[in-house]
Each structure stands twice: as structure tokens, then as C-alpha cells.
UniProtKB/TrEMBL annotation:
Keywords: ATP-binding, Cell membrane, Membrane, Nucleotide-binding, Transport. It holds the Pfam family ABC_tran. Belongs to the ABC transporter superfamily. It is found in: Cell inner membrane. Residues 6-252 form the ABC transporter domain. CDD domains: ABC_NikE_OppD_transporters (cd03257). SMART domains: AAA. InterPro entries: AAA+_ATPase, ABC_Ni/Peptide_Import, ABC_transporter-like_ATP-bd, ABC_transporter-like_CS, Oligopep_ABC_C, P-loop_NTPase. It comes from Rhizobium mayense. This is ABC transporter ATP-binding protein. PANTHER family: DIPEPTIDE TRANSPORT ATP-BINDING PROTEIN DPPD, OLIGOPEPTIDE TRANSPORT ATP-BINDING PROTEIN APPD. GO terms for molecular function: ATP binding. Gene3D superfamilies: P-loop containing nucleotide triphosphate hydrolases (3.40.50.300). It comes from the Bacteria.
Length: 323
């Protein structure tokens, strides 16, 4: 087997001395799509920012290893990380308008990566940037090339950000809610583009999303996060067929079903993700879990739970009782 493109081990991140990511580890292989799922506040985006070397100033990586093609990124200085970003690794951000330069036409922002990282001339970079704008579903791409972010809708800015990330065909692509602002037709087009990218170039993709429909459509493996930790990881088929953690089971139960009874309330998970610094002792889902008991005051290890699967729960044999 070839070594993973991205390997994260025992990653710890804190804000103001309080942990927000607590011992997270996973890998993404060449041509593989791994999704990170979970409610807001679980630490998914912070994990992605740490991989890219883009943690906000208020956050700090306390320990952990992040390797890209075997290269330890945590040991690189800011200049070396800057050379990697946009070349070997790229990220689609959740807030595209805030991530684009308002003083530069979007086309030049996309072409810039080709000039800097691929050494292309201005005309060839412009040609490829216009072609990529068309690939992500932006109409009249030659005209849009010269427009500024404020002249585009939020959905178009999102597609421009996606074009910027894909233009250099990076070895690793991190996508943080990449299709949130897009209608379903464009969403399907973007997901198909990402599938084609991984098939043609072997790009490893780490996708952060709340949309389990997107997960079912595109993922090879799924890592479920809760309160700074991964609580379950398995292939996408295994996750949907049988869950080994109550949180995963309850998360999937909230998805509307076409064969469900009409005019009924959707299931919900009571409570909320605990605030950082106020995580409960032991299993952090215990305050919301119907199966919780005294044993759950001890932290369950993220251990093997079958073939190519890990889960962190003391009561995996009881999960079938949950609705």
C-alpha cells in the first residue's frame, strides 16, 4: 500500500488555554475522499486550519503531527508553508466573500496561482483560469474573469473560490462546506468536478460538511467528530449501514426520509455541543446520550470496532436499541 498523502496524529489545539481539538488523528490516501462530519463547534474547521498552517492568532497547536507526503508540516516556517499552499495543498473556505481580495478581479486571483506556482505566462494563465471558471458553472466566464468579488453573488464567489483551489490540481484539497451557498444543480456539478479531479490526478480530498446527502454521494470514508474528538471512523457504506457510536446513530436519524410518515416532526438530538472548557468528564456525548451510565464517566478509547473501523463507545452492543 502507498503511504497516505495526509496523515494527522494526536493533534491538540487550544484557544485561550482551553482545548478545542483533543487528540485527533486520521489519514487521507491518494485519490481518496474523507469527510469530517459533526455539529458546529466540534473542531472540524480548526483541524483543517491547522493542517493548512492557518490557525487564527487566538489559537495554538499544542502538540501533534501533520504530514503531507511524509513531510512534517509542523516543523516548517511560514515561508515554506506559503510555498506549499496553492501548490501542493489548497483549501476551499467556508466564507468565500471574506476570503477573496476585494481589490482584485476574481480572474487574476485564480490565475495568480498558475503564475506563482506553475510559472505560466499571463495569457496562458488567463486562458486556463477562464476555462476553470466555466468548469465550476460560472456563466460567461471570459466576462466574469474581469469582475470584482462585489460584482458577484455569494454563490458565484463560492464557485470562484472553488476554481482558485482546483486550478493547480493540488495533491491535497481541503473543502470546508464547499457547496453550502450553491443550488442543487451547481452543487452536483461541483461534486462531480471534485470526483473527476481525484480520478484524474489522484488528489486526496478532506471534505468538511453537515450535509449527509453529500457524504453519501462523494465520500469513501467518514470521520465523525464530537467535542474536539473523533468518535467514529469507517467506510461510508459501513457508517450508513450500521453505526457503532450513539452520536453517529442519532445524527443520521435526523435526516428526512422519503418513505417516512408525512407531516411528522423530524427527530432531533437534545441539548447542544458543550462549550470548550466545559466538556463533561469521560465520554463527552454522555450528557446527551440515552445509553449513558456510570461507566461513561471514563473516557472510551477510539479503538477498532470491526474491519477498517474505529469507534469510541462503551456500549456499542446497545446502539441498536436507539430509534
Amino acid at each position: 500500500m502507498t503511504a497516505p498523502v495526509l496523515t494527522v496524529e494526536d493533534l491538540h489545539i487550544s484557544i485561550g488555554g482551553k482545548p478545542v481539538v483533543d487528540g485527533v488523528g486520521f489519514s487521507v490516501g491518494a485519490g481518496e475522499i474523507v469527510t469530517l462530519v459533526g455539529e458546529s463547534g466540534c473542531g472540524k474547521s480548526m483541524t483543517a486550519f491547522s493542517v493548512m498552517g492557518l490557525l487564527p492568532r487566538v489559537a495554538a497547536r499544542k502538540k501533534g503531527s501533520v504530514r503531507l507526503n511524509g513531510k512534517e508540516l509542523t516543523e516548517l516556517d511560514s515561508a515554506a508553508m506559503k510555498r506549499l499552499r496553492g501548490d501542493e495543498m489548497a483549501m476551499i473556505f467556508q466564507e468565500p466573500v471574506a476570503s477573496l481580495n476585494p481589490l482584485m478581479p476574481i480572474g487574476k486571483q485564480i490565475a495568480e496561482s498558475l503564475v506563482v506556482h506553475r510559472g505560466l505566462g499571463g495569457k496562458e494563465a488567463q486562458r486556463q483560469a477562464i476555462a476553470m471558471l466555466g468548469e465550476v458553472g460560472i456563466p460567461e466566464p471570459a466576462m466574469r474573469f474581469h469582475q470584482f468579488p462585489f460584482e458577484l453573488s455569494g454563490g458565484m464567489c463560492q464557485r470562484a473560490m472553488i476554481a482558485m483551489a482546483l486550478i493547480t490540481r493540488p495533491r491535497l484539497l481541503i473543502a470546508d462546506e464547499p457547496t453550502t451557498a450553491l443550488d442543487v444543480t451547481i452543487q452536483a456539478q461541483i461534486l462531480e468536478l471534485m470526483k473527476r479531479l481525484r480520478a484524474e490526478t489522484g488528489t486526496a480530498i478532506l471534505l468538511i460538511t453537515h450535509d449527509m446527502g453529500v457524504v453519501a454521494d462523494i465520500a469513501d470514508r467518514v470521520a465523525v467528530m464530537y467535542a474536539g474528538r473523533i468518535v467514529e471512523e469507517a467506510s461510508v457504506d459501513a457508517i450508513f449501514d450500521e453505526q457503532r457510536h450513539p452520536y453517529t446513530r442519532m445524527l443520521l436519524s435526523t435526516i428526512p426520509r422519503l418513505d417516512g410518515e408525512a407531516k411528522t416532526l423530524l427527530p432531533t438530538i437534545s441539548g447542544a455541543v458543550p462549550d470548550i472548557g466545559f466538556w463533561p468528564e469521560g465520554c463527552r456525548f454522555s450528557t446527551r446520550c440515552p445509553l449513558a451510565d456510570e461507566q461513561c464517566r471514563k473516557t472510551p478509547p477510539l479503538a477498532a470496532a470491526g474491519t477498517d473501523r474505529r469507534a469510541a463507545c462503551w456500549h456499542q452492543d446497545l446502539i441498536g436499541r436507539l430509534a
